[in-house]
Known about the structure:
The structure is a single chain. By secondary structure, this protein is of the alpha/beta class. The chain is built from 16 helices and eight strands. It has helices at about 5-15, 85-100, 115-130, 150-160, 170-175, 185-205, 230-245, 270-285, 290-295, 310-315, 330, 340-350, 355-360, 365-370, 380-385, 390-405; strands at about 55-60, 105-110, 140, 160-165, 220-225, 250-255, 320-325, 375. The radius of gyration is 23 Å and the shape is globular. It starts with a helix and ends in a 14-residue tail after the last helix.
Amino acid sequence: MDVRRKLTILADAAKYDASCASSGGRRERQKGGMGNAKGMGICHSYTPDGRCVSLLKILLSNYCIYDCQYCVNRISSDVPRATFTPDEVVKLTLDFYRRNYIEGLFLSSGVVKSPDATMERMVEVARSLREDHRFGGYIHLKVIANASAALIEKAGRHADRVSANVELPTEADLARLAPEKKMDAVHDAMGLIHARHDEAAVERQSSRHAPAFAPAGQSTQMIVGATPTADGRILALSSRLYQQHGLRRVYYSAFSPIPFGDPRLPVKSIENGREHRLYQADWLLRYYGFEHGELLSPDENLDLDLDPKTTWALRNRQSFPVDINAAPKETLLRIPGVGVRSVERILSSRRERSLRLADIARLGVAMTRAAPFIVTLDHNQALASLDDEALAARLRDAALRARGPGPNHAQLSLFAA
Protein backbone atom coordinates (compact mmCIF):
# COMPACT_ATOMS: atom_id res chain seq x y z
CA MET A 1 0.00 0.00 0.00
CA ASP A 2 1.44 3.38 -0.97
CA VAL A 3 1.89 6.23 1.50
CA ARG A 4 -0.89 8.31 -0.02
CA ARG A 5 -3.46 5.57 0.54
CA LYS A 6 -2.17 5.06 4.10
CA LEU A 7 -2.51 8.77 4.75
CA THR A 8 -6.12 8.74 3.55
CA ILE A 9 -7.01 5.89 5.91
CA LEU A 10 -5.03 6.96 8.96
CA ALA A 11 -5.88 10.66 8.83
CA ASP A 12 -9.57 9.74 8.68
CA ALA A 13 -9.13 7.28 11.57
CA ALA A 14 -7.58 10.02 13.73
CA LYS A 15 -10.54 12.40 13.44
CA TYR A 16 -12.27 10.92 16.51
CA ASP A 17 -9.56 12.14 18.86
CA ALA A 18 -10.43 15.67 19.99
CA SER A 19 -7.45 16.38 22.23
CA CYS A 20 -5.00 17.90 19.78
CA ALA A 21 -4.76 21.52 20.94
CA SER A 22 -1.26 22.92 21.15
CA SER A 23 -1.73 25.75 23.62
CA GLY A 24 1.05 26.07 26.15
CA GLY A 25 3.93 24.72 24.10
CA ARG A 26 7.02 26.76 23.27
CA ARG A 27 10.07 25.45 21.49
CA GLU A 28 12.66 27.60 19.72
CA ARG A 29 14.20 26.81 16.36
CA GLN A 30 17.52 24.97 16.75
CA LYS A 31 20.59 26.20 14.93
CA GLY A 32 20.57 24.68 11.47
CA GLY A 33 17.20 23.05 12.15
CA MET A 34 13.67 23.75 11.03
CA GLY A 35 10.31 24.62 12.62
CA ASN A 36 9.31 26.26 15.85
CA ALA A 37 6.37 26.15 18.22
CA LYS A 38 5.37 29.38 19.94
CA GLY A 39 3.77 29.73 23.34
CA MET A 40 0.36 30.58 21.88
CA GLY A 41 0.29 27.43 19.76
CA ILE A 42 1.54 26.26 16.41
CA CYS A 43 0.31 28.93 14.05
CA HIS A 44 -1.84 30.99 16.42
CA SER A 45 -5.03 29.68 14.78
CA TYR A 46 -7.65 27.80 16.75
CA THR A 47 -11.17 26.56 16.13
CA PRO A 48 -13.85 28.08 18.40
CA ASP A 49 -13.67 25.10 20.78
CA GLY A 50 -9.92 25.49 21.23
CA ARG A 51 -8.59 22.91 18.79
CA CYS A 52 -5.58 23.78 16.67
CA VAL A 53 -6.13 22.98 13.00
CA SER A 54 -2.60 23.05 11.62
CA LEU A 55 -1.31 19.76 13.00
CA LEU A 56 -0.65 16.72 10.88
CA LYS A 57 -3.10 14.55 12.81
CA ILE A 58 -2.76 10.84 12.05
CA LEU A 59 -2.61 7.39 13.57
CA LEU A 60 0.56 5.37 13.30
CA SER A 61 -1.74 2.38 12.76
CA ASN A 62 -5.44 1.64 12.92
CA TYR A 63 -4.85 -2.02 13.64
CA CYS A 64 -5.75 -2.73 17.26
CA ILE A 65 -5.69 -5.84 19.44
CA TYR A 66 -8.41 -4.38 21.69
CA ASP A 67 -12.15 -4.63 21.09
CA CYS A 68 -13.45 -1.35 22.56
CA GLN A 69 -17.04 -1.27 21.37
CA TYR A 70 -17.19 2.51 20.90
CA CYS A 71 -14.10 2.57 18.66
CA VAL A 72 -14.30 2.26 14.89
CA ASN A 73 -10.78 0.74 14.87
CA ARG A 74 -11.58 -2.13 17.28
CA ILE A 75 -10.31 -5.58 16.30
CA SER A 76 -13.81 -6.76 15.35
CA SER A 77 -14.45 -3.77 13.07
CA ASP A 78 -14.47 -4.30 9.32
CA VAL A 79 -12.59 -1.17 8.23
CA PRO A 80 -9.64 -0.75 5.84
CA ARG A 81 -6.41 -1.14 7.80
CA ALA A 82 -3.06 0.56 7.35
CA THR A 83 0.18 1.10 9.26
CA PHE A 84 2.91 3.67 8.78
CA THR A 85 6.54 2.97 9.44
CA PRO A 86 8.23 5.54 11.70
CA ASP A 87 10.28 6.76 8.73
CA GLU A 88 7.13 7.37 6.69
CA VAL A 89 5.61 9.53 9.44
CA VAL A 90 8.84 11.49 9.78
CA LYS A 91 9.02 12.10 6.04
CA LEU A 92 5.36 13.13 5.86
CA THR A 93 5.78 15.58 8.73
CA LEU A 94 8.86 17.21 7.20
CA ASP A 95 7.37 17.34 3.70
CA PHE A 96 4.11 18.87 4.97
CA TYR A 97 6.04 21.39 7.02
CA ARG A 98 8.21 22.46 4.09
CA ARG A 99 5.05 23.06 2.07
CA ASN A 100 3.68 25.16 4.94
CA TYR A 101 0.69 22.84 5.36
CA ILE A 102 1.39 22.14 9.02
CA GLU A 103 3.70 23.18 11.81
CA GLY A 104 3.37 20.17 14.06
CA LEU A 105 2.40 16.56 14.54
CA PHE A 106 -0.34 14.86 16.54
CA LEU A 107 0.35 11.14 16.63
CA SER A 108 -1.80 8.41 18.13
CA SER A 109 -2.23 4.75 17.29
CA GLY A 110 -4.18 1.58 17.75
CA VAL A 111 -2.42 -1.02 19.87
CA VAL A 112 -0.39 -3.26 17.55
CA LYS A 113 1.10 -6.45 19.08
CA SER A 114 1.46 -4.88 22.53
CA PRO A 115 1.36 -1.45 24.24
CA ASP A 116 5.16 -1.32 24.48
CA ALA A 117 5.72 -2.33 20.86
CA THR A 118 3.36 0.42 19.69
CA MET A 119 4.69 3.08 22.07
CA GLU A 120 8.26 2.29 21.04
CA ARG A 121 7.48 3.04 17.39
CA MET A 122 5.69 6.30 18.27
CA VAL A 123 8.63 7.41 20.40
CA GLU A 124 10.98 6.62 17.52
CA VAL A 125 9.04 9.06 15.30
CA ALA A 126 9.47 11.86 17.83
CA ARG A 127 13.12 10.97 18.50
CA SER A 128 13.98 10.98 14.81
CA LEU A 129 12.27 14.33 14.24
CA ARG A 130 14.03 15.95 17.19
CA GLU A 131 17.49 14.39 17.00
CA ASP A 132 18.02 13.36 13.37
CA HIS A 133 16.23 16.28 11.73
CA ARG A 134 16.32 18.87 14.56
CA PHE A 135 12.62 19.56 14.07
CA GLY A 136 11.44 22.36 16.37
CA GLY A 137 7.72 22.19 15.64
CA TYR A 138 5.03 21.05 18.02
CA ILE A 139 4.68 17.32 18.77
CA HIS A 140 1.83 15.73 20.69
CA LEU A 141 2.09 12.00 21.42
CA LYS A 142 -0.66 9.80 22.78
CA VAL A 143 0.48 7.52 25.58
CA ILE A 144 -0.64 3.95 25.07
CA ALA A 145 -2.26 2.54 28.19
CA ASN A 146 -0.03 -0.03 29.97
CA ALA A 147 3.12 1.19 28.18
CA SER A 148 6.25 0.98 30.30
CA ALA A 149 7.45 3.89 32.43
CA ALA A 150 10.72 3.99 30.45
CA LEU A 151 8.87 4.56 27.17
CA ILE A 152 6.62 7.22 28.69
CA GLU A 153 9.78 8.94 29.95
CA LYS A 154 11.24 8.92 26.43
CA ALA A 155 7.99 10.23 24.95
CA GLY A 156 7.97 13.17 27.35
CA ARG A 157 11.55 14.09 26.51
CA HIS A 158 10.78 14.50 22.81
CA ALA A 159 7.14 15.65 22.77
CA ASP A 160 5.70 19.02 23.76
CA ARG A 161 2.57 17.37 25.10
CA VAL A 162 1.70 13.79 25.98
CA SER A 163 -1.73 12.50 26.87
CA ALA A 164 -3.38 9.34 28.10
CA ASN A 165 -7.09 9.04 27.28
CA VAL A 166 -9.48 7.88 29.99
CA GLU A 167 -12.04 7.30 27.19
CA LEU A 168 -15.01 6.58 29.50
CA PRO A 169 -15.78 8.27 32.83
CA THR A 170 -16.12 5.25 35.15
CA GLU A 171 -14.51 1.88 35.70
CA ALA A 172 -17.93 0.26 35.23
CA ASP A 173 -18.24 1.91 31.79
CA LEU A 174 -14.86 0.56 30.75
CA ALA A 175 -15.68 -2.94 32.03
CA ARG A 176 -18.86 -2.85 29.96
CA LEU A 177 -17.50 -1.54 26.66
CA ALA A 178 -13.69 -1.79 26.84
CA PRO A 179 -12.79 -4.64 29.21
CA GLU A 180 -9.13 -4.72 28.13
CA LYS A 181 -8.62 -1.18 29.46
CA LYS A 182 -8.31 -0.36 33.15
CA MET A 183 -8.78 3.05 34.74
CA ASP A 184 -5.90 2.41 37.17
CA ALA A 185 -3.45 2.02 34.27
CA VAL A 186 -4.48 5.39 32.86
CA HIS A 187 -4.17 7.08 36.26
CA ASP A 188 -0.72 5.49 36.76
CA ALA A 189 0.45 6.91 33.43
CA MET A 190 -0.95 10.35 34.27
CA GLY A 191 0.69 10.28 37.70
CA LEU A 192 4.07 9.42 36.16
CA ILE A 193 3.76 12.20 33.57
CA HIS A 194 2.76 14.74 36.23
CA ALA A 195 5.62 13.80 38.57
CA ARG A 196 8.23 13.85 35.82
CA HIS A 197 6.92 17.15 34.43
CA ASP A 198 7.24 18.79 37.86
CA GLU A 199 10.71 17.33 38.42
CA ALA A 200 11.89 18.66 35.06
CA ALA A 201 10.49 22.11 35.86
CA VAL A 202 12.47 22.20 39.11
CA GLU A 203 15.63 21.03 37.33
CA ARG A 204 15.27 23.77 34.72
CA GLN A 205 15.09 26.39 37.46
CA SER A 206 18.59 25.31 38.48
CA SER A 207 19.92 24.99 34.94
CA ARG A 208 18.35 26.23 31.73
CA HIS A 209 20.19 23.42 29.94
CA ALA A 210 18.32 20.72 31.85
CA PRO A 211 16.04 18.70 29.53
CA ALA A 212 12.37 19.57 29.51
CA PHE A 213 9.66 16.98 29.95
CA ALA A 214 6.39 17.52 28.07
CA PRO A 215 6.61 21.31 28.54
CA ALA A 216 3.02 21.82 27.32
CA GLY A 217 1.75 19.37 29.95
CA GLN A 218 -0.79 16.62 29.47
CA SER A 219 -4.44 16.33 28.47
CA THR A 220 -7.03 13.59 28.15
CA GLN A 221 -10.30 12.83 26.40
CA MET A 222 -13.64 11.40 27.49
CA ILE A 223 -16.40 10.13 25.25
CA VAL A 224 -19.74 11.58 26.31
CA GLY A 225 -22.98 9.71 25.80
CA ALA A 226 -21.69 6.24 24.92
CA THR A 227 -22.97 5.12 28.34
CA PRO A 228 -25.74 6.46 30.60
CA THR A 229 -23.21 8.02 33.02
CA ALA A 230 -24.43 11.49 34.01
CA ASP A 231 -22.61 14.79 33.55
CA GLY A 232 -22.22 15.10 37.32
CA ARG A 233 -19.93 12.06 37.44
CA ILE A 234 -18.05 13.22 34.34
CA LEU A 235 -17.31 16.60 35.94
CA ALA A 236 -16.32 14.91 39.21
CA LEU A 237 -13.71 12.86 37.33
CA SER A 238 -12.46 15.93 35.45
CA SER A 239 -12.08 17.84 38.72
CA ARG A 240 -10.10 14.96 40.23
CA LEU A 241 -7.81 14.77 37.18
CA TYR A 242 -7.07 18.50 37.32
CA GLN A 243 -6.29 18.34 41.03
CA GLN A 244 -4.35 15.08 41.19
CA HIS A 245 -2.48 15.02 37.88
CA GLY A 246 -2.25 18.69 36.90
CA LEU A 247 -3.91 18.22 33.52
CA ARG A 248 -3.95 21.20 31.19
CA ARG A 249 -7.21 20.20 29.57
CA VAL A 250 -9.94 17.57 29.56
CA TYR A 251 -11.60 17.16 26.16
CA TYR A 252 -15.16 15.96 25.79
CA SER A 253 -16.17 14.15 22.62
CA ALA A 254 -19.88 13.63 21.94
CA PHE A 255 -20.50 10.03 20.95
CA SER A 256 -21.39 9.39 17.31
CA PRO A 257 -22.69 6.01 16.13
CA ILE A 258 -20.14 3.87 14.33
CA PRO A 259 -20.75 1.27 11.60
CA PHE A 260 -21.91 -2.09 12.98
CA GLY A 261 -21.70 -0.80 16.53
CA ASP A 262 -22.50 -2.77 19.65
CA PRO A 263 -26.27 -2.88 20.36
CA ARG A 264 -25.57 -1.48 23.83
CA LEU A 265 -24.44 1.80 22.26
CA PRO A 266 -26.86 4.64 21.40
CA VAL A 267 -28.24 4.52 17.87
CA LYS A 268 -28.26 8.31 17.51
CA SER A 269 -25.57 10.95 17.92
CA ILE A 270 -25.47 12.79 21.22
CA GLU A 271 -26.55 16.43 21.03
CA ASN A 272 -23.62 18.77 20.41
CA GLY A 273 -25.15 21.04 23.04
CA ARG A 274 -24.24 18.55 25.77
CA GLU A 275 -20.58 18.63 24.76
CA HIS A 276 -20.71 22.44 24.69
CA ARG A 277 -22.24 22.64 28.18
CA LEU A 278 -19.58 20.30 29.55
CA TYR A 279 -16.86 22.57 28.17
CA GLN A 280 -18.57 25.57 29.83
CA ALA A 281 -18.79 23.74 33.16
CA ASP A 282 -15.18 22.62 32.80
CA TRP A 283 -14.20 26.28 32.32
CA LEU A 284 -15.99 27.16 35.56
CA LEU A 285 -13.94 24.52 37.38
CA ARG A 286 -10.63 25.78 36.00
CA TYR A 287 -11.01 29.54 35.95
CA TYR A 288 -14.01 30.63 38.02
CA GLY A 289 -13.42 28.91 41.35
CA PHE A 290 -16.39 26.54 41.21
CA GLU A 291 -16.39 23.04 42.68
CA HIS A 292 -18.02 20.28 40.66
CA GLY A 293 -20.46 19.54 43.47
CA GLU A 294 -21.78 23.11 43.30
CA LEU A 295 -22.75 22.69 39.67
CA LEU A 296 -24.29 19.22 39.63
CA SER A 297 -25.20 16.29 41.80
CA PRO A 298 -23.54 13.01 40.73
CA ASP A 299 -26.54 11.69 38.78
CA GLU A 300 -27.59 14.99 37.19
CA ASN A 301 -27.08 16.26 33.65
CA LEU A 302 -26.41 19.84 32.63
CA ASP A 303 -29.27 22.00 31.40
CA LEU A 304 -29.04 22.22 27.61
CA ASP A 305 -30.99 25.50 27.44
CA LEU A 306 -29.13 27.51 30.10
CA ASP A 307 -25.40 27.81 30.66
CA PRO A 308 -24.08 26.19 33.87
CA LYS A 309 -23.35 29.48 35.66
CA THR A 310 -26.87 30.80 35.08
CA THR A 311 -28.31 27.50 36.29
CA TRP A 312 -26.20 27.72 39.44
CA ALA A 313 -27.25 31.34 40.05
CA LEU A 314 -30.95 30.47 39.78
CA ARG A 315 -30.45 27.73 42.36
CA ASN A 316 -28.54 30.03 44.69
CA ARG A 317 -30.60 33.23 44.61
CA GLN A 318 -29.63 33.95 48.21
CA SER A 319 -26.15 34.86 46.89
CA PHE A 320 -27.57 37.69 44.77
CA PRO A 321 -27.88 40.51 43.87
CA VAL A 322 -24.17 41.39 43.81
CA ASP A 323 -23.01 44.98 44.19
CA ILE A 324 -20.70 45.53 41.23
CA ASN A 325 -18.96 48.42 42.99
CA ALA A 326 -18.14 46.54 46.19
CA ALA A 327 -17.97 42.77 45.60
CA PRO A 328 -14.60 40.97 45.57
CA LYS A 329 -13.23 39.29 42.49
CA GLU A 330 -14.32 35.80 43.59
CA THR A 331 -17.95 36.96 43.85
CA LEU A 332 -17.92 38.88 40.57
CA LEU A 333 -16.75 35.73 38.76
CA ARG A 334 -19.96 33.97 39.81
CA ILE A 335 -22.32 36.45 38.16
CA PRO A 336 -23.95 35.03 35.00
CA GLY A 337 -22.78 36.74 31.84
CA VAL A 338 -19.59 38.08 33.45
CA GLY A 339 -16.33 36.60 32.18
CA VAL A 340 -12.79 36.66 33.51
CA ARG A 341 -11.76 39.60 31.30
CA SER A 342 -14.88 41.55 32.18
CA VAL A 343 -14.13 41.08 35.89
CA GLU A 344 -10.63 42.47 35.41
CA ARG A 345 -12.07 45.48 33.58
CA ILE A 346 -14.65 46.04 36.33
CA LEU A 347 -12.01 45.92 39.05
CA SER A 348 -9.81 48.34 37.13
CA SER A 349 -12.62 50.76 36.24
CA ARG A 350 -14.20 50.98 39.67
CA ARG A 351 -10.92 52.22 41.15
CA GLU A 352 -11.59 55.42 39.24
CA ARG A 353 -15.32 55.85 39.88
CA SER A 354 -18.53 54.08 40.79
CA LEU A 355 -19.98 52.14 37.89
CA ARG A 356 -23.43 52.47 36.36
CA LEU A 357 -25.36 49.95 34.28
CA ALA A 358 -24.22 51.51 31.00
CA ASP A 359 -20.60 51.26 32.16
CA ILE A 360 -20.99 47.54 32.82
CA ALA A 361 -22.41 46.98 29.34
CA ARG A 362 -19.40 48.72 27.78
CA LEU A 363 -17.03 46.41 29.68
CA GLY A 364 -18.18 43.36 27.74
CA VAL A 365 -20.74 41.91 30.16
CA ALA A 366 -23.67 39.94 28.69
CA MET A 367 -26.35 42.17 30.16
CA THR A 368 -29.35 39.95 29.39
CA ARG A 369 -27.97 37.34 31.77
CA ALA A 370 -26.21 39.63 34.23
CA ALA A 371 -28.78 42.40 34.83
CA PRO A 372 -31.15 40.44 37.12
CA PHE A 373 -28.24 39.49 39.38
CA ILE A 374 -26.42 42.80 39.92
CA VAL A 375 -26.72 46.16 41.64
CA THR A 376 -25.00 49.27 40.27
CA LEU A 377 -25.14 52.95 41.13
CA ASP A 378 -28.32 53.37 39.08
CA HIS A 379 -29.75 49.83 39.00
CA ASN A 380 -31.26 47.73 41.78
CA GLN A 381 -34.17 46.04 40.05
CA ALA A 382 -32.60 42.69 40.85
CA LEU A 383 -34.02 42.95 44.37
CA ALA A 384 -37.49 42.36 42.94
CA SER A 385 -36.72 40.24 39.87
CA LEU A 386 -34.83 37.54 41.78
CA ASP A 387 -38.03 36.65 43.61
CA ASP A 388 -39.92 36.37 40.33
CA GLU A 389 -40.60 32.70 39.56
CA ALA A 390 -40.72 33.61 35.87
CA LEU A 391 -37.05 34.67 35.86
CA ALA A 392 -35.79 31.25 34.74
CA ALA A 393 -38.34 31.19 31.92
CA ARG A 394 -37.30 34.67 30.78
CA LEU A 395 -33.63 33.73 30.74
CA ARG A 396 -34.40 30.51 28.91
CA ASP A 397 -36.41 32.40 26.27
CA ALA A 398 -33.62 34.93 25.87
CA ALA A 399 -31.11 32.10 25.31
CA LEU A 400 -33.34 30.56 22.65
CA ARG A 401 -33.76 33.92 20.89
CA ALA A 402 -30.01 34.48 20.95
CA ARG A 403 -29.51 31.06 19.41
CA GLY A 404 -31.76 32.02 16.52
CA PRO A 405 -34.32 30.04 14.50
CA GLY A 406 -33.66 26.64 13.01
CA PRO A 407 -31.48 23.75 14.21
CA ASN A 408 -28.54 24.29 16.53
CA HIS A 409 -25.29 25.02 14.79
CA ALA A 410 -22.75 22.19 14.85
CA GLN A 411 -18.96 22.20 14.70
CA LEU A 412 -17.94 21.48 11.11
CA SER A 413 -15.68 18.50 10.53
CA LEU A 414 -12.17 19.27 9.35
CA PHE A 415 -12.26 15.98 7.42
CA ALA A 416 -15.70 16.22 5.80
CA ALA A 417 -15.80 15.86 2.04
